[in-house]
Amino acid sequence: METLTFAAPATLPAGKIVATNVSLEEYMAQYALTFHEWVSGVVIQMSPASRVHDALTNYLRQWLNIYFELNPIGQALNAPFVMSVEAIGSGREADVQVILDSNPGQLTDTKMIGPADICIEVVSPESAARDYGDKFLEYEKAGVREYWIIDPLRQRCDFNRLDESGVYVVVSLDETASYRTPLLPDLALHVPTLWLDELPGILTTAQAIQKMLDGA
Question: Which of 28, 61, 174, 193 is the most exposed place for a label (fewest CB within 10 A)?
Answer without folding.
Answer: 174
